Structure of Phospho-2-dehydro-3-deoxyheptonate aldolase:
Amino acid sequence: MAGPAVPLELPAIADEPLALAWPDDSARVLGPLPTPAELAERFPRGERLRAQVTGHRRAVREIVDGADDRLLVIVGPCSVHDPDAALQYAHELAAAAAAHDRDLLVVLRAYLEKPRTSVGWKGLLHDPHLAGREDLAEGLAIGREFLVRAANSGLPLAYEFVDPFLAPYVLDLVSWGALGARTVASQPHRQLASALPMPIGMKNGVTGDVEVAIAAVRAARAPHTFPALAAGGVPSAVVGAGNSACHVVLRGGARPNYDAASVGAALDELRAAGVGAGVVVDASHGNSGKDHWRQPGVVEDVAAQVAAGNRGLLGVMIESFLEEGNQDVAARPLRHGVSVTDGCLDWPTTARCLDVLAEAARRRRIASVRPRTRPVGL
Ligand SMILES: O=C[C@H](O)[C@H](O)COP(=O)(O)O
Ligand SMILES: C=C(OP(=O)(O)O)C(=O)O
């Protein structure tokens, strides 16, 4: 039998409410952040961008649902570290996107948070001055201002939701979202995805496990209740209705998985699980062994599968910036337009990849309307 209840000895916290949540011996409270509403008021989306984002999300969803036969191309820097250079890139990309509009829906990677395998620069929101020092308040302001300016290029924006807490600060500007290979198994991330108003790509796991991505799609398609900040900053219980436009992104792992056999196997698994019939292929990461020069080869292979009529291929992701390669985030001076995280393709090579993908989408369209057998009597 249990003895008498031992009274809990609580420290005197009445006038130090933070001490209960974040005791000084293990954490330090740096200071308050703006609420999502305060940040949005400072860098508003405005009516024109609201309508633009709504239209872009619908367009992405139509590709995911198979109602639009264009290819979705999510392309841009691994991370945004220099907003001016990223906007210069967006300007080039917007012109190419307009030229390929009939065949491709081009979405700009506008990634402001980076998931790290262990430690490293965590992105513009965390360390906007690349100074090796956290400044979330400044990062949120610089990051949101960038997203508004990038959206003004007319391009849809892609974003990896790394920290669920930060999502309400940026999500109104995002038209395609991702859960990355390092967070796709996380319940808080899947709950967030269930409440997000844009299609979400679920990456396969870092080792190449596709099942974890399929499980994430299933989880995010269901409704969930979870804790999150409301716009005004009040911690709230939020109900996600379930996101029907979630899909799998094949990014490779221990070995690549962009080849026809791997794509076919993933599509079979998706159909068996009853969660859609399409995948996006990431040409970078595990599919390029982190060698950016292997991305065009992946793009060529996927384009050949598309041109051969594979309707299960929804699109491609490419890591690309103004200049090829990458550099150490601590290097000074930093080279303009060069990634500080994963290596990227340069702009001319990227433009050729877009041409290849547009041609593949056209050939798939022609193949789908061409009669398969000669009509009787001719
Ligand atoms: O996409 C970028 C990186 O692959 C990801 O952030 C992990 O990087 P890391 O393994 O260098 O930490
Ligand atoms: C981190 C990324 O990818 P992954 O989760 O596939 O490693 C990314 O796309 O930036």
